[in-house]
Amino acid sequence: MAKVCFGMIVSLDGFVSDRHGKLDKLYESFKPNDEINKVMEKTGAVVMGRRTYDMTDDPDAYADNYEFQVPIFVLTHHPPAKHPKENENLSITFVNDGIGSAVRMAKEAAGEQEVVVLGADVGQQAMRAELVDELQIAIAPVLLGTGTRMFEHLDDMEIQLEKIRTMESRRQVEIHYKVIKPS
Fold first, then answer.
1. In CATH, which of 3.30.300.20, 3.40.430.10, 3.40.50.720, 3.40.50.10320 is domain 4-180?
2. Residues 89-110, buried b or exposed e (16+ Cβ, 10 A)?
3. Dihedral through CA 168, CA 169, CA 174, CA 175, nearest 10?
4. What are the tens digits of pLDDT across the range 116-129?
5. CA distance 56 to 108
6. Taking a C-beta distance cutoff of 8 angstroms, is the pair 33, 146 a contact?
7. Which among 32, 135, 156, 179 could disulfide-bond with 36, CB atoms 3.0 to 4.6 Å apart, if both were Cys?
8. Of 145, 141, 133, 127, residue with least CA distance to 180
9. Domain locations in the chain?
10. Three-class secondary structure of residue 35 per DSSP
11. Tens of pLDDT along 141-161?
């Protein structure tokens, strides 16, 4: 069954967006290399929250330009009135019955490939529900000072991790950690 990976680009001080909710400063340094591209090719489905989904100006652009051309599951209480464009590889399903349901559907769609969870809130929900197998964190060479923290609402949890991989591009370091499940 598919492995569930919570992955994001984060500033060195732990923010996944700046004070205005923008990601531009984090992605300025993101230049995938062959090693990172191979990891991305293992993605079979994506789970994201509505805020992450809404970050694009045109939802139809997912079908044309999104880096993951796989089934996408958007966790939301309010699906959009108009369903976005899809293609033969990319479908979009709006899920309103919780993170467990979204991850379950994504795992079925991904088969033996990986499920990537995107967005701080959805990632935190998946971590609290103990659904995450691996953290994939790219560290951008910037200090944002404020914004949205990657692990803001996990205060009452102690999560043990084991480093399993480190990758470097010209300006970033990406670290993968296995989440050690409680016995």
1. 3.40.430.10
2. ebbbbbbeeebeebbebbbebb
3. -10
4. 999 999 999 999 99
5. 26
6. no
7. 32
8. 133
9. 4-180
10. helix
11. 999 999 999 888 887 888 999
